[in-house]
Amino acid sequence: MANVYLSLGSNIEREANLCSAMQRLLQDFGHVVFSHVYETPAAGFAGEPFFNLAAGLTTALTPTALKHYLRELEQAHGRLRGEEKFSARTLDIDLLLYDDWNLQPTTNLPHQDILTYAFVLFPLAEIASTVMHPVLQRAIGEIARESTLSAAMMRRVTLDCGA
């Protein structure tokens, strides 16, 4: 079983899509750890703010099979591929870490967004502070503490996902 970490985001029907995706992850993987949810401005384009969070789980799926599962989950929530890289989305799920695997540069694993965007790094650090970044060989929490990325535009929110 591999320990994996994901980044989830939505800026279209964001609460409904994230709650649904979180419930599906719990249903399919059992125990899942979620960070707090943060509202952040759209990055790279003018659009509605996103809700973002990180999730941690264990799986027997390979990285390729897990990415396929995540794409199907996105599609089930109305995500259309072929969109511009920076655009509004119903659901965006990225595989951030898969155990201590480093598949760079052929595969974006560990995901480069960990070091690029505060809305990825800081929620990940909440649930994986002692996990080592496979390339930097430093703990995610340490990377977050020393990061020059700003969390100033991140506002913690509470989702009402029902019972």
From TrEMBL:
GO biological process terms held by the UniProt record: folic acid biosynthetic process
Enzyme class: transferase
Annotated ranges, domain 7,8-dihydro-6-hydroxymethylpterin-pyrophosphokinase: 5-128
Record bears the keyword ATP-binding: yes
Record key words, sorted: ATP-binding, Folate biosynthesis, Kinase, Nucleotide-binding, Transferase
GO MF terms held by the record: 2-amino-4-hydroxy-6-hydroxymethyldihydropteridine diphosphokinase activity; ATP binding; kinase activity
Keyword Nucleotide-binding set for record: yes
EC numbers for this chain: 2.7.6.3
Pathway: Cofactor biosynthesis; tetrahydrofolate biosynthesis; 2-amino-4-hydroxy-6-hydroxymethyl-7,8-dihydropteridine diphosphate from 7,8-dihydroneopterin triphosphate: step 4/4
Protein name: 2-amino-4-hydroxy-6-hydroxymethyldihydropteridine diphosphokinase
Organism: Thiothrix subterranea
Gene: folK
